[in-house]
């Protein structure tokens, strides 16, 4: 029965946010733009806070730097704001998707470790370009290397929820599922 409880808890963690970019060999640069890409399921909270972390205080003395607060989880990708003091350089970085800016230790997901590299003004820049499949009308954003532009551009990186995507709309479903799993786990571990 304890195995059943462990399986149920594992299944609940699979059905959650997953950071797909950055991570591993897909890192960021000090000049950006630096994108965060994720997958989610309908039971995930609609909003989260993106947090840059690094356990190595020599690389990043102030851990848990909020990059974007109140991110609309249905977007799937955002351009991250640099932390105060600019982008640090080094290895061992992770992006955490935290519950909100007041609960940075309540994680919904965490990226794999990645590097942030110093880049020159003549280097290539990672950007997100829209691609469309011939068999599907859904477009997806994918990273691609491009040469930096000398023409300034602006983008709206607002992550404010709309009335149809308020943060509390999906909380009941996830809370109910997690409460039921916790009750079942407690029952199984105490009954057997």
What is the fold's blueprint, element by element?
Layout: H1 2-14, E1 18-21, E2 28-29, E3 35-39, E4 47-53, E5 65-72, E6 77-79, E7 90-100, E8 103-110, E9 114-117, E10 125-132, E11 139-146, H2 171-191
Parallel strand pairs: 2-9
Antiparallel strand pairs: 1-3, 3-6, 4-5, 4-7, 7-8, 7-9, 10-11
Helix pairs in contact: 1-2
Care to give the gist of this entry?
18% of the residues lie in helices and 35% in strands.
Unreliable segments (pLDDT under 50, ≥5 consecutive)? Answer: 3-13, 121-178
The radius of gyration over CA amounts to 19 Å
Mean pLDDT: 71
What does the main sheet amount to?
A: 6 strands, mixed
The helix tally amounts to 2
Order of helices and strands: HEEEEEEEEEEEH
Estimate the strand proportion: 35-45%
**Shape estimate:** globular
Q: Got a strand count?
A: 11
Span of the ends, CA to CA? 7 Å
- Decide which structural class fits the backbone: alpha+beta
Q: What is the helix fraction of residues, given as a range?
A: 10-25%
